[in-house]
Design goal:
The protein is an alpha/beta fold. It has 16 helices and eleven strands. Helix 9 links the parallel strand 5 and strand 6.
Length: 398
């Protein structure tokens, strides 16, 4: 079970995720360099300037804003209900698979069974407007996997996601159950038509999200959700997908962190088979039954709690600089590979679509302080603009 935290530590974890401009990568650097979040908020502006630009340093050194204080109180009230949990990066219950991603969420909101986060699980994803055959395949594969003790993870979307959750739940209480990873706050069901399914998952499985309470569905949040789907799983099965789809993003994210990717082939005349066929050409394993997946993965399950409930060797959560998933070198502002290039790699990395600071950190490989300094310069010069949701975009030239 997740740890029960002292109120000051709980409040600090929540605040860390609510402060504008502090995403998962920023938070990870600060945690590695300074320690637990309540210590971060005890630092002076001068101390925070070692890791943050002036504006953010001033922001974190101040008391929390009224809006954040209200959100913290709202979250504490939500946590008072049974089966509601907040799992932090410092908690031994934090899923080890997410530590293998480059930006593990600082906190996870869980409604249901937090033990499922460490169960051997397979993600099943696919088209929202799936064919009847695709929906049947998703249910059948999920039912078989859950019957054999595997958890089934998906994103609660219509189509394949819905069918996967339904198939896993059909295996009953002795099965592997299911996790729905949300692209909204834990108190919001999207799409609304899946409200009853979400309640059933909360009772028998788990709803999980990194987004704070009240956070509505926004397009840029779903790729972030997909990386959690990939990180929690041992492999990803794509049932039906067009060539341009979120399911292929999930498959790519899974492959990048060493997860197996599986795909079900379909008709060469169906647009919803093209994504699966493309994955197979790129090395995904063609599967025709759930047993194909089980046989592929069952011999290599390090660090995962099995159906019997007996854990194998696994990593624990955040423990400071050098902890699993948080390289100590990332906290060193003086490392040699952080100088800004003479040409404008930041604008090139930004591209023409809105992106988060965390995405730019990943694309450029720059130190946080230097990146934020350059972003401030570009913003002041009118080259970029900061959107209301905190993302950055190149300023349109007229």
């Amino acid at each position: 079970m997740p740890l029960t935290l002292p109120q000051d530590e709980l409040d600090a974890w929540i605040r860390l995720t609510l402060e504008p401009g502090i995403g998962p990568v920023h938070a990870r650097h600060l945690l590695a360099a300074i320690g637990l979040p309540q210590i971060i908020f005890e630092q002076s502006v001068g101390q925070l300037l070692k890791w943050l630009p002036h504006e953010l340093a001033v922001q974190l050194a101040r008391p929390a804003s009224d809006d954040i204080v209200m959100q913290i109180a709202k979250t504490r009230e939500w946590l008072d209900h049974p089966h509601h949990y907040l799992v932090t990066l410092a908690d031994p219950a934090y899923p080890s698979g997410l530590l293998e991603t480059h930006d593990p969420p600082p906190v996870l909101y869980v409604n249901g069974r937090p033990d499922l986060l460490s169960r051997s699980s397979i993600a099943i994803v696919g088209a929202r407007h799936a064919t009847p055959g695709g929906l049947e395949n998703a249910r059948d594969f999920a039912r078989h996997l859950a019957d054999t003790g595997w958890g089934v993870i998906s994103g609660l979307a219509t189509g394949i996601d819905t069918a996967a959750h339904q198939g896993a739940l059909a295996a009953g209480p002795k099965g592997g159950s299911t996790i729905a990873v949300l692209g909204t706050g834990i108190d919001i069901v999207y799409p609304a038509r899946n409200r009853d399914l979400a309640h059933q998952i909360a009772e028998q499985g788990a709803l999980v999200t990194e987004f704070p309470l009240g956070c509505k569905a926004l397009p840029h949040q779903f790729p972030r959700r997909n990386r959690i789907v990939a990180g929690l799983s041992r492999g990803v099965l794509v049932v039906e997908a067009a060539l341009q789809s979120g399911s292929l993003i999930t498959a790519r994210q899974a492959s990048e962190i060493g997860r197996e990717v599986f795909a079900i082939p379909g008709s060469i005349h169906s647009p919803l088979s093209r994504g699966c066929h493309a994955l197979i050409r790129q090395g995904a394993k063609l599967v025709e039954s759930g047993q194909d997946i089980v046989e592929e993965l069952q011999s290599n399950l390090p660090g995962i709690v099995t159906r019997s409930g007996q854990p194998t060797t696994r990593r624990t959560g955040y423990q400071g600089a050098g902890a699993p998933g948080i390289p100590a070198a990332d906290s060193n502002p003086n490392r040699k590979d952080t100088g800004l290039p003479k040409n404008d790699s930041v604008l090139r990395a930004l591209g023409f679509d809105p992106v988060t600071v965390d995405t730019l950190l990943e694309r450029t490989g720059l130190d946080i302080v230097l990146l934020n300094r350059r972003l401030t310069e570009l913003e002041l010069d009118g080259h970029i603009e900061r959107l209301p949701d905190g993302r950055l975009q190149q300023q349109a030239k007229h």
